[in-house]
Structures are given as structure tokens and as C-alpha cells.
## 1
Amino acid sequence: MEPMPFPRVIRTVGELQDESDHCRAQGLRVALVPTMGALHEGHLSLVREARARADVVWMSIFVNPTQFNDPNDFEAYPVNFDRDLALAGENGVDVVFAPGVEELYPQGAQTWVEVEGLSESLCGASRPGHFRGVTTVVSKLFLAARPHVAVFGAKDFQQLAVIRAMERDLGFGIEVVGAPTVREADGVAMSSRNVRLHPEARIQARGLVKALDAAERAVLGGELSRDRLISEVETILREMPLGETDYAELRDPISLALAPEFLSGPTLLALAVQFRRPEGGDEGLVRLIDNRLLDPTPTR
Ligand code: PAF
């Protein structure tokens, strides 16, 4: 079989903008899949979603320093550009945009994009500045690629909500699409961080999806009490001795406001757990998130 060609790699904003102009002049629809590399099946599902919605698919690979509130997390972020490029090529990505840090954050850069409100709860509360970094870099990627559509994973539910709000508020004119979470065989949500888990923590991480499944079953069985649902979820999360729950919350899926005492419509169950190594210490901490939309009134 013929090896798949590597995608074209573009390193500068100017060149990507020229390519965008070129595509638009030819009437081609451009989709962008923003990533930080360390590609896994979840990213490749975003590429497939993008392909279904556009003529050309571009992927950005940029480990964005400004969204890491913890410098150790940034240092430990897995990087393997050659592997990513091969995977992108095999999966039909046409262009990979891989700028250096100075290209997106020129010396003296002092402009930030921040979505207030939506960025403040959940991950925003535990990771100060995280969403400011995300919305700033995504704005830069949007302005560089000027895509028609951009695809993000729904595992990062809050990120998706924040980016949708930013897109709407700033009028980028880009369709923001959320693609469903892809899971490992045992149900754990795919994440670039999974490979950094200690093997014991990786097994325990199944507790997140177990908690989501239990809550979903409870709601379908008629349990509507927010407190009772959270208590059931927290009990399951406590069964992971290497995991410390950062949050387990029920929230409105649009506004992210706290859910009412008794659920009355589709509600987001959002979880974040920090895993440590069995030997303890601050080395090798890995934070996982997952979520499920619970619907007490599903249409049959
Ligand atoms: O979800 C991610 O991988 C990142 O937050 C994103 C959207 C690529 C911005 O750096």
C-alpha cells in the first residue's frame, strides 16, 4: 500500500492566512481542528467530523503555554511531532499549522481574550487563568486560519461553552462544532494525559465513567434530587484511593449555573479528579475531567 503523504506544514500566521485566502477564492470550505498534539483517537474523530463538514481540513498543533496554570503540567505535556504528523497525514489532514511560541505570542504581547462568567466556575475556579489562555490562543488560531468551521471535543465541555460564547461575542463568523467524547475500551475518556497516569491510577480512573453511568441510571430511574445525585457520585469517586476529587457538580449546560435543587431539564454532570502516584508527592499529578448530559425528560 502507498504510504500516506505527510500533510503540508505551515509555521507562520501570514502563510496560513494566504492559504485561507486561496481556499476561499476557490470556493473551498475550510475546517480547523485545534489541538495541542499528542494525538489520539479522540482527535482523529474530530478530523473525521471536520472532513464531513468541509472541503479541506487543517489541524493546528501548538502546546499553548498560556493555558497551563501549573508550569510542571506544561513541562510534562507529551510532545511527539513526527508521530502526530504521520497520524494527521494518515487521517487525511491537508495542512498542519505548527507555529513556534514567538509566532503566536510576539515579544511584548499584552493582548488577552477573556470570557467572563462562563470561565469562572468548574475548571476555571481550579485553574486560574486557564480559560483566558485558551480563548486567547483560539482567537489567534481563528484569525490565522479564518476557517468556516472549527471542531472541538465535547469532553472539554466548559471549554466548548466558553469558545462558543467567545465566537458569538466577537462575531468571528465561524461555526463551532462539538464532537462526542471518544472512550477507551474500558470507558475512560480519551485524553493526552492518560499516558501520564501511573498504571494503578489508570485502572482507578474507570471510577469517573462509573460515576457518570450511575448518575445517568439514577436519573432515568426517577432520581431528581441534586444533592442525592452528587452524594452518589462522590461515593463512587471516593473508591479511587489515588484520586482526589476536584469537583463533582451538576450545572445548566448552557449558562453553567448551578443546577436547581431538583433537576427539571437537561443537566450537565461535570467531574474533575486529580490522580497522584502511589508513592505520593507532587510529582506526576494528572488531572482528568469527564462529563455527561443527564436528561430527566428524554424523548422516547
Ligand atoms: O483542547 C485543547 O487541546 C486546547 O485547549 C486547544 C483548544 C487546542 C487550545 O490550546
Note: The mean pLDDT is 96.
## 2
Amino acid sequence: MELVRLERRGAVAILTLDRPDALNALDRATLEALRARAAQLAEDAALRAVVVTGEGRAFAAGADIAEMRGLTPTQAESFSRLGHEAFAALESLAVPTIAAVNGYALGGGCELACACDWIYASEKARFGQPEVNLGILPGFGGTSRLVRRVGIGWARELVLTGAPIKADEALRIGLANRVFAPEALMEGALATAQTIAEKGPVAVAQAKRLLLEGQDADGRVANALEQATFGLVFSTRDREEGMTAFLEKRDPAFEGR
Ligand code: DAK
């Protein structure tokens, strides 16, 4: 059985966490499978977007508590490092990633969703960082990525109370971009992924990189990076094709170079 299934729909990949009996809880094996899938996708030159979701009634109900229970501090640090590596591999993919949160996204599940470029939620989704209920704290980026997504006030409330929120609240605070009826979630995420797949691939990848790296740079450096990258994409065939197609009133045929 594959813990993280990979399916291709044209230029779009769907990654599905597939451990539904444990609500897709993230144990070592699942995190290793996720890291391997991200590495596999990073090598796929024809890929244009990724949708990440969960099988069954959860997106992921967090790190695997049963497995974590017996960890020594050294093992816990190594477990945290593995999660960080897997999520960073996903976050740094050149193509956009959309988390389609179908149900519980708690603890490590919420952190995984935040490692994707943005989140679409089912009306059934529940988000939260319940680690303090267990006497631990977020270990897969919850104190860093969540702050950027929702701001410091909401990040504090979620991490320090451990209380979950529903999809409409996640939408209101900017954790989720859109909320869908459960049966419309994947269709919605795939439609957006397909929209992205039709754009200039180099421009999309470079814009994604700037949006990610610009966050860590000060304003002047981020602006300089944007100017240099703007110049760089003028060297692509896609830029020429995109502008020519517009002026000739036809659809562009992008090649990704
Ligand atoms: N881990 C392991 N198993 C889990 C699980 C989890 N996080 N969540 C659910 N399951 C399992 C349940 O044990 C149950 O298994 P069986 O009893 O059937 O064998 C099965 O999934 C179905 O769950 P329930 O029977 O509990 O289902 P309910 O509908 O009643 O409740 C629930 C759903 C999501 C409200 C509930 O399962 C729940 O509260 N789950 C735990 C949620 C949670 O606390 N998540 C945060 C986990 S902590 C770190 C590294 C990482 C992290 C922290 C530190 N370092 C190394 C420093 C990250 C931490 C976390 O993510």
C-alpha cells in the first residue's frame, strides 16, 4: 500500500495521503513517502501544478501520536527534522501547490496545508494546532508558516489555545482562500490547477519563487530580485509567444522555455 498516492491528470499531479484508518496521521513512513514524492515531482519537467489532499474524512489529523509517544528527545528532533524536510521539499517545488483540505487538518496536518501555496477547504474541514493539548508544541513549521498565513494574533490564538476552527472561520482569517461543498472541492482545486497549467510555465515558476523568497528578504532586496527576474523572463520564448499571441488575438502556445 502506498502511503502517499500520486496520480497525474495531464500536467497536474494529485498527491493523496492514504492512511485513512489513522486519519492520515503523519508517521515516519508517511513523511518519508511524502519527501520521496516531492523529490519525484521536482524531477518532472512536464508538471505544472500539484493538488495535495487526504483520503477519507481527514486531510491529516497531525503527527502520529502513537508513534511519537515513545520518542526520546533526540528521536523527536530527528522526527521534526524529517517533517521539515518533507514540507520544505513540497514548498520549494517550482510549480504551485494547492492544499485541498477535505476534513481534519490538525497539528502536522495544518502545517502541511500551510506548506502548500494556498488552501482550498471543504465545508467539512477543521483546522487547528492542538499540540498544547498533548503537552507539546508544533514541530513542523506551525510557529513560522502559520504566522505568515494568518498574522501573529490568530497564530497565537490557534497555537496557544489548541482550539480548532471551522472552514468558514479559516476563510475569514485568510487561512483558506475558498470554501467548497465537499463534493466540489477536488473539482475546484483541479480547475484552478488547470488554469495555472495554461499560463507561461517559466513566468509562473519565477513568480512563485519571488513570492516565497521575497518574504524572507528585506524590501529593497525583494524589489531588486523582482527587477532582475523580470528582465530574465524577457529572454524566454514564452514571453515572445505570449505577447505575440496577444497582439495577434490568438491563444498562446507556451513551451516552458
Ligand atoms: N495520531 C495517531 N492516530 C490518530 C491521530 C494522530 N494524530 N488522529 C487520529 N488517530 C487515529 C485514532 O487513534 C483512531 O484510531 P483507532 O482507535 O481507530 O485505531 C483513528 O485515527 C480515528 O480517530 P478517532 O476515533 O479519534 O476519530 P474521531 O472522529 O472520534 O476524532 C479527531 C477525530 C481528529 C478529533 C481525533 O482523532 C483527534 O483529536 N486526533 C488527534 C488530533 C491531534 O491532536 N493532532 C495533533 C497531533 S500532534 C514535533 C514534531 C511534530 C509535532 C510536534 C512536535 N517534534 C518532534 C518536536 C506535531 C505534532 C502534532 O501534529
Note: The domain at 201-247 is CATH 1.10.12.10 (Lyase 2-enoyl-coa Hydratase; Chain  A, domain 2).
